[in-house]
Amino acid sequence: MMQGIMKWLEVLLLAMCRTAYCWIFFFISCNGTLETCKSILSRQYSYGHTIGAIYSIVWGIAWWMIFRNRHASKRWAIAANLTFVFIYLPALVTGTWREFVKAELDLWPVILFGILGIIVFSIPYHGWRQKPQIQASQIPVPISEK
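The structure assignment produced for this chain is given below.
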């Protein structure tokens, strides 16, 4: 009995974490898209905005996949969380290793958030409110058809 309650609490906590990450991806994606559009309209577009636009697309796809409970949601969510871990990796193209390491170390809470997200989405999850699939052999046959 106690193990059943603990299992139920684990599944509930995992579902809450996944839901929170889903909506965080949505809001960050919308904000990134808005900032990219603003920079295009003000004609102050740069390389950083291109990376921001790509990250916004990844976060938006991750949100949609999780929201619609698609099979690829786990992969997209891990990819979106990897963008948090390596948020300044594209800076290596235009900068130096020292600038990259300094920028990464300044954002350690974001990196921890990404690592936690990778852990959350790596745990096997069978759904909080999913109904079990009914096989054809389990469907009752009406008496009139026998």
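Interim note for the steering committee: Residues 21-123 form one domain. The chain has a mean pLDDT of 81.
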